[in-house]
Amino acid sequence: MSDIAPTGEFPEPMPKSAPDDRESEGPFDETEANPVRPYVDLGGIKILPREGLHLRLEIEEGSKRVVAVGLDYAGSTLQVQPFAAPRTSGLWHEIREQIADQIARQGGTTTLREGPLGPELVAEIPVAAGQGAGGTTRLTRFIGVDGPRWFLRGVIAGEGAVNPEAAAQVEDLFRSIVVMRGSTPMPPRDLIPLRMPSTPTGSAEPTAV
């Protein structure tokens, strides 16, 4: 999923969903980030390198645009996407419902729970034929944080979805991300543009989606 499809309706504005310490502990707005830290600039987000972290850029085959950033870390995969959002209201409450509906249509199940970053969805998604034994499911966590004029979504699979120690490492990685919303007007739910790093990191590779 890249851009989040509009609902066609105009529901009551929802409050922002974010940890109480988001401004000091992340995910950060560009105005809150430490300017001297050696971030990898991917356009809409900046990633702080760390040992054992491997970066993948997910490329939309038709448009050739970068639609997501994949981070392999601590035996886990973390896919992140930044979206434009309203200044005062949040997107995560409504988007969780859309994700749950999509997974239900795929034959999966979701459970809403309170996680370290706020409400999150834990999903059991059927494994497609050819990706494993028939009748099995994959456990995935969907997390989200509303910031000032942006929303950052994360999808965690692997150890970070089942192992508390790995989960804590991946959550720390998610919280270290800086969102570069910029001043360009954008409709809420549009994907904030991502791009290849301006300086090669030696660990980034494109992946077609």
In words, what does this structure look like?
By secondary structure, the chain is of the alpha+beta class. It has a single domain (22-177, 186-194), classed as Protein Transport Mog1p, Chain A (3-Layer(aba) Sandwich). The protein is built from 3 helices and 12 strands. It has helices spanning 22-25, 92-105, 164-175, and strands at residues 28-29, 40-41, 45-47, 54-59, 66-73, 76-84, 109-115, 118-126, 137-147, 150-158, 178-179, 204-208. Strands 7-8-9-10-6-5-4-12 form an 8-stranded mixed sheet. A 4-stranded mixed sheet has the order 1-11-3-2. The relative contact order is 0.27. The mean pLDDT is 90.
Brief descriptors of the model:
alpha+beta; 209 residues; single chain; 4-stranded mixed beta sheet; 8-stranded mixed beta sheet
Strand percentage: 25-35%
The overall average pLDDT, rounded, is: 90
How many individual helices? 3
CA-atom Rg in angstroms: 16 Å
Largest sheet: 8 strands, mixed
Intertermini distance: 9 Å
Helix content: 10-25%
CATH fold node name: Protein Transport Mog1p, Chain A
Domains (count): 1
Structural class, please? alpha+beta
Strand order of the largest sheet: 7-8-9-10-6-5-4-12
Series of secondary-structure elements, N-terminal to C-terminal = HEEEEEEHEEEEHEE
Please count the beta strands (DSSP E, at least 2 residues each).
12
* Unreliable stretches covering 5 or more consecutive residues: none
